[in-house]
Amino acid sequence: MPEPRGLLAGQVALVTGAASGIGAATAALFAAEGAVVRRADLPGAGEIALDVTDAAAWDAAFDRIGREDGGLDILVNAAGIASAGAGDAAAIETVSLDNWRRVFAVNVEGTLLGCQAMLRHMAHARPGAIVNIASSAAAAPSPALGAYGASKAAVAQLTKSVAAAAALSGLPLRCNCVMPGMAETPMTAGMPPAYRQAWIEQIPEGRFAEPAEIAQTILFLASGMSSYVNGAALPVDGGLLSRPIVGLRRDDQAG
Hints:
alpha/beta
């Protein structure tokens, strides 16, 4: 963890999906940077119990933060699922409508509800920020991640719409998203070895990211360091989306 710089001193942040993975790493980094961090996750997992698909639960969370902290400055929509089933339940040729709808309910509708709550409850004049979590899967298709990739593409587009809505409403609220590549999280922990290796071979960095590496970019988008960045979708993927279609690693070229 880098030395604290106080980039978020005096600010209040709500991080969903904060019990593990990228959400947990983001909450820890924000706290180190001086923010008052409210960690939200499913009941029993987070400081604030929040089912992101429940609009009333969002209002309750914002009302609580308003009473206890004086309002919210930063929202990070990190809650997400890859599939609502097991095995090949998310594969594009076999995914059920129930599974598809559940993935979209959490990843897209949950993000939408969070953004709407931020727009409704943002009553102060100081600048605020929303950071949504999309994915490189929005642009790098995998038949095994059909529902997930489609949902994250929707999150990237939703981000632009929210940024535009805030601007047209005169709110000093920026909305951006990160597009993480493969990271060492509970979502990827159960990958079959061959599938994991297939991804690694497509990543120029040759490895999965640590959650803290993704959190650093979320911090950038949440802080004043990115004061002129709005409506952006920023890949943090080890070069996955810019990978060569044909080529050899330098150490293989001699052969």
